Amino acid sequence: MFMLARLVPTEAEMESLPIARAFTLLEPGPAVLVTTNDGRRDNAMTISWTMVMDFSPTFALTTGPWNYSYAALRDTRECVISVPTVDMIDTVVGVGTCSGTDTDKFEKFGLTRVKARHVRAPLIRECVANVECRVVDIVERHNILVMEGIAAYFDSAREEKRTVHAVGDGTFIVDGRRIDRREMMRSKLPDGL
Amino acid sequence: MFMLARLVPTEAEMESLPIARAFTLLEPGPAVLVTTNDGRRDNAMTISWTMVMDFSPTFALTTGPWNYSYAALRDTRECVISVPTVDMIDTVVGVGTCSGTDTDKFEKFGLTRVKARHVRAPLIRECVANVECRVVDIVERHNILVMEGIAAYFDSAREEKRTVHAVGDGTFIVDGRRIDRREMMRSKLPDGL
To answer: Could you give the residue ranges of the DSSP H alpha helices within chain B?
Structure first.
C-alpha cells in the first residue's frame, strides 16, 4: 500500500524555489510535516520543534527514538520538510497523534505523495512548501538533527498560504498580517534575498 | 550608564508563570530579545533562531562569536529570553540592527530593566513574557546554545499580546486568531498543562 507507483511526478506538480530562500519558509516557526522513507514505505510526522540555523538552508529539529520516524531519519539521513496551511489543521494534529507503526498516514489523511528529486521521502502535494533535506549531523545528547536543504518548492498558486504555529498546549496560532521592515534590516540580510 | 541601581525590583513588577509552561511562550516561534550581563553591563540582542526541545523548559538558540552577546552567554552561562509584542516591532528590528559594542540598547530603545531572581541579566518590563535561563551546553560545531529555563513571567494585564514571527527576509508575520485542538491532542500533552 506504500507503492512507489503512486508517487506523482515532480515536474508536473511542483514549482521550484531558490534553495537560498528555503530558510524563510521555516524561520516564522510553522508546525511542519516531516516525511521519510525507510526503504520500504513512506511515513510522516508533525514537528513544531524546528530552528533555522543560518542565512542558508541549514535547519535543526528535535526528535528521538520515541518517534517512529526517527529510525528512518537516522538510517537514511534524508527527509522532506513540508509546510501545511491552516486549512490542514486537522491533518497537522491527526498526523501528530497517530503512529506510522500501524497507520498509513498518507492514506488516512488523503495526502498526495509527489516524487522528490534528490531523496526517497516524498513531497506532499497539499502543502504550500516542501524542502528536500539531508541529515548532516545528529547531536545525540540533545536529540537535535541538523539538516541541509537541497531543493525547495513553493506553491504560489495556492490561495490559502497562512501557516499555523503550535503553542504546545493544544492550541495553534494562525498567521495574521505581514509587516515590512526590509529597509530597516537591509544591512543584516544576505544580498539578493 | 548600566548601573544596577536602575534595575526595577522584580516583586513589584512581574507576575510569575509556572516554569512548566515556559515552552509554550517559545514554541510558536516568536522573534525574541535575549538579554545578558557580562559582569560590567547589560545588553540585548534580537534572535529568531530558537527551538523548543522538549515538553520542559529546555530551549535551543543559534548564535555565535559574530554576536557581541555571545561572549557574555559563553562566560556567564546565563541570559533572559524576553518575548516582545507587535507594538514593539521597531524595537525588535532596532535591537537586531545595532551592536552592544557601541550602544546602550536599553537606553536607546527605552526598555525598562527589571531585576531577575536567579540571573544577572535583566528582565524587560515592556515584554509580554520573560524567561530566566541558564546555558546548559554549547554545541560549538553548530553554534547551538542549549538553555534551561529556571523562572518565567507573563504579563497577563498587558492588552497587546500578539507576537511577531520573523520571516528572515525583513518581513514579519503578526499572530492571527487561535485555533483550539486541545481535545484532539490530549494524549500527547503533559498532564496539567
So the answer is: 10-13, 23-26, 69-76, 89-96, 105-108, 182-185
Q: How far apart are CA A42 and CA B34, in angstroms?
A: 40
Nearest-CA residue of chain B relative to A137? B142
Cβ-contact A172, A89 below 8 angstroms = yes
Q: What is the Cα Rg of chain B in Å?
A: 16
CA gap A163, A173 in Å, rounded: 9
Contact B48 A27 (CB under 8 A): yes
Spatial distance between the Cα atoms of A149 and A3, rounded to a whole number of angstroms: 25
What is this model's ipTM?
A: 0.93
Given the DSSP bridges, would you call strands B42-47 and A144-154 parallel, antiparallel or unpaired?
A: unpaired
- Cβ–Cβ under 8 Å, residues B46 and B92: yes
C-alpha cell at B148: 534551561
pTM: 0.94
Residues 6+ apart with CB under 8 A from A52: A23, A26, A27, A58, A59, B48, B49, B62, B168
Min Cα distance A122 → chain B (Å) is 25
- Say how far residue B28 (Cα) sits from the centre of its chain: 13
**Which pLDDT tens digit goes with each residue over B184-193?**
999 888 887 7
Binary contact (B60, A48; C-beta < 8 A): no
